[in-house]
Amino acid sequence: MNLASPNVTLLTEQQLVGSLVELMQQEQDLLIKADAEGLAALMPHKSELVQQLANLAGERHKALGAAGFAASESGMEPWLAASGAPDVRAQWQQLLGLTAQAKELNRVNGMLINKQLAHTRAALGALQTPGEAPEAGVYGPGGQTIGGGPSKRFVVG
């Protein structure tokens, strides 16, 4: 089996990571807006891009291994040094830059998700009766607790 050179996938990887960065920026906007429907529509495309990128990286790793270098990201620098191709090094550096941008967007989006999750949990906690409390109490006009028992009403919002 004849394997391609490790640089064959670089341009396609750059395009896909660029598309992923754009998608993650859209994801960030949707997270800020708390647009669950928009996020749900975005996720299949994001998953597809990530899978395509994993496949291309796998092809590059196989080519690196076949060329006698480490079959991983760590094998790319030694291969680039041996190949002596400055244009390929520039492609690799651009891919690394786009990947760093995607990682940062992923980090920020994760923080936004955690913030939204904490807010949702707090809202749910405020609506629920504590499990150890026999009755849900509210304060009456005199400041005394009035036991109301668990509420059978639904909150619509």
TrEMBL record:
Keywords: Bacterial flagellum biogenesis, Cell projection, Cilium, Flagellum
Signal peptide: none
Pfam families tied to this protein: FlgN
Gene Ontology biological-process annotations: bacterial-type flagellum assembly
Primary role: Required for the efficient initiation of filament assembly.
Family statement: Belongs to the FlgN family.
Protein name: Flagellar protein FlgN
Species of provenance: Massilia horti
